[in-house]
From TrEMBL:
Protein name in UniProt: P2Y purinoceptor 2
Keyword ATP-binding: no
Its membrane topology: Multi-pass membrane protein
Protein keywords: Cell membrane, Disulfide bond, G-protein coupled receptor, Membrane, Receptor, Transducer, Transmembrane, Transmembrane helix
Listed Pfam families: 7tm_1 (PF00001)
Amino acid sequence: MENLMTPPAWTRVTNSSLDPGGTDDNPYKCVFDEDFKYVLLPVSYGIVCVVGLFLNLLALYSFIFRIKTWNASTTYMFNLAISDTLYVVSLPLLVYYYAMGDNWPFSVGLCKIVRFLFYTNLYCSILFLLCISIHRFLGICFPLKSLQWGHVRHARRVSVVVWVVTVVCQSPVLFFVTTSVKGDTITCHDTSSKDLFGQFVIYSSVMLVLLFCIPFLIIIVCYCLMARRLLQPTRGISRLSRSKKKSVKMIIIVLVVFIVCFLPFHVTRTLYYSFRSWDLSCETLNAINLAYKVTRPLASTNSCLDPILYFLAGQRFMKFAGNKMLGKPQNEVALGIVPNSHLGTSSDTDTLSKDLKS
């Protein structure tokens, strides 16, 4: 009889991130059991830290020391690697924090910086992937214009704009994010204090539209137009046909990775923020809370997938393509034209653009 009267686990545990202020007067009716995250998050963040740091440092080394002449794609990828590196070096703090059971022994400033780096990397990655996608779109659908707008000096200016826009848009995170003391533990919240939570949700919704929804829609439109152009039958040698097939496969891979890394996080975060004050069952709220906690490290895996997907496949970094590129004419390298590339991404795209012009 006593067991029948025992409430579910998610209504008994007092350690919950549903209370952004960390105070005892929790206005929410459900408090969830989040013990799973003390294993999931340290392990996942630890893996992302080790793998992402290695791959991004390798990519940065290749950029700086092995590739002598850059193109627009190289410029965007280099900035993407910087963003990923800045984020992964902050992950040991989160690994320690979650391994200690949501106990933050560091300063409030470090808490703000760690959360700020997460969101800055998230939206820098999205915007730089958008830049790479537009660059490929111009190369395939408007090859003549790509010669003008795809120049490296324009890519540098665009990269500066991306950094400025992202830092400015994410600077409110430094204001909203805070810590709170509850018993003997200090919680580093990824939202805000309770009295500012409504404003934080509005801010997050605006960022969702501006920095995720709009770029995502543009990427989908660009890739659909690219796929339609690539799938059109054209006269040419068989190498062009192979390049087109590889480019189509690359489009599919990019969309899959984008959807896997970024879409689940934004969907579950929106539901997580929206449903907290709704009159829903504890089972439903617990499922949303679980999904959100799982997709947070999933969003972080873009720091590992970026160098694998774009640096390896696009620029042959694991073979240190810089040595091979040195023997090519400078104008071909500047345009990213590397004939007979067996990996077929940006190099194949630019090769296709060259063929389309002729």
